[in-house]
Design brief:
- With 364 residues, the protein is α/β, with parallel strands linked by helices.
- It contains 11 helices and 14 strands.
- The chain has helices spanning 10-28, 54-65, 94-97, 99-107, 119-129, 197-207, 259-266, 285-297, 309-315, 323-326, 342-356, and strands at 41-46, 71-75, 86-87, 112-115, 135-139, 151-157, 185-189, 214-222, 226-227, 247-253, 271-276, 302-308, 329-332, 334-338.
- A 9-stranded mixed beta sheet has the order 3-4-2-5-1-6-7-8-14, with helices on both faces.
- The longest helix has 19 residues, at 10-28.
- It is globular and about 65 Å long.
- The relative contact order is 0.16.
Length: 364
């Protein structure tokens, strides 16, 4: 959303809007070509900068489909240092494929996880080298107009409504909100579990959903903490054990929107020292020293280090963390839940598309 403190950035947003608008015009009119493929391709994306929950929703789709179809994930591999098409393996690192693809691969080692900045080349390579693939999920591909997905799922954060936002750099929009029309399915993510029917109708009105679009509300669900380091043999940590007054935590986050995670932990810890880094932050030895210093600064008798699942992927590559901290270092996995009994309808929509679309045609 626009910040009046940075109002001077508004003219830059206007220029950015003209550039992205002209680019979309070239694709919409067919002046720039967009490729389609002969197998189902599902795109999961957004029009805002980060923080809508793409990874847990992508993982939801993987969990839904992998028991019936041969699934492949294709991502850009944000902030990796490798080039071209890469496939995740047991020896892959964050530098090879990026943190989110590595997180997905470690959770689902039985599926193909690949990265390629050029999504068209990525799909072509998958079809050539892995012809048994039956469905491809594009992670964060909504703005990749050179590829036309068969089913496009757009995520919009409940707490950051697009109708009140502005284009970057003044706001958080990657492109004009009118381009929501390209989506076949809209998911309002991070919704409160008790959202009222009136508020739901207001959102439907404000987002200007088209008749051909399906809209669902989802919420984030936090799961039991797991150790960051596999050799952690300490007792399993239950977040609801003991009283909050006796427990302290060093919270380490490198995600776009850490506030909901912090708010969740506030219920279970009387003392929290929050080390907040930028999204996809590459941790350094200096950062590890900050973590240890914060750990030593906790006054609670029982203390742990807590991070997000995505940050754990990057932190796990450091094996020299001080032993007391390392043995008490946990991450909290997240999942998604559908509200209003929408899970059944959403699941059927996905299954119907994958089963019926032998060619990658637009659903709408």
């Amino acid at each position: 959303m626009g910040n009046r403190k940075y109002l001077f950035l508004y003219p830059c947003s206007l220029i950015y809007g003209m550039i992205t608008g002209f680019r979309n015009f070239l694709y919409d009119t067919g002046i720039l070509p967009s490729h389609e493929f002969h197998i189902p391709v599902i795109c999961v994306g957004n029009i805002t900068v980060g923080g809508t929950g793409k990874t847990p929703h992508t993982e939801y789709l993987v969990e839904l489909l992998r028991g019936k179809f041969r699934v492949a994930i294709l991502s850009r591999g944000y902030k990796r240092i490798s080039n071209g098409f890469q496939v995740a393996t047991a020896t892959s690192s964050v530098k090879d494929i990026g943190d989110e693809p590595l997180q997905i691969y470690r959770k689902f080692p039985d599926i193909l996880v690949a990265v390629d900045r050029n999504r068209v080349n990525g799909v072509q390579t998958i079809l050539k080298e892995y012809p048994e693939t039956e469905v491809i999920i594009l992670d964060d591909g909504f703005q990749h107009r050179s590829l036309t997905p068969g089913l496009s799922i757009l995520l919009s954060d409940f707490n950051r409504p697009v109708d009140k936002d502005h284009l970057v750099p003044y706001g958080n929009l990657r492109e004009n909100k009118k381009n929501i029309k390209r989506a076949d399915v809209i998911l309002i993510t991070k919704s409160p579990g008790n959202i009222s029917p009136i508020n739901q109708r207001i959102i439907l009105k404000n987002i200007e959903k088209a008749p051909y679009q399906d809209l669902f509300f989802t919420t984030i669900s936090y799961k039991d903490p797991l150790p960051v380091f596999e050799n952690n043999t300490s007792a399993k940590f239950h977040i609801e054990d003991s009283t909050p007054e006796k427990r302290g935590a060093v919270l380490i986050t490198g995600i776009a929107v850490p506030e909901p995670f912090r708010k969740y932990l506030d219920k279970y810890f009387g003392e929290i020292i929050h080390l907040n880094f930028t999204d996809h932050h590459h941790f350094s030895e200096n950062d590890l020293e900050k973590i240890v210093t914060a750990w030593n600064g906790l006054k609670s008798p029982y203390k742990v280090a807590i991070t997000t699942e995505k940050d754990a992927v990057r932190l796990r590559e450091f094996t020299n963390i001080a032993e007391p901290v390392k043995m008490a270092f946990y991450y909290i996995p997240v999942g998604v839940s559908f509200l209003n009994e929408g899970k059944h309808d959403f699941d059927n929509l996905i299954f119907d598309y994958v089963r019926k679309n032998k060619r990658n045609n637009r659903v709408s």
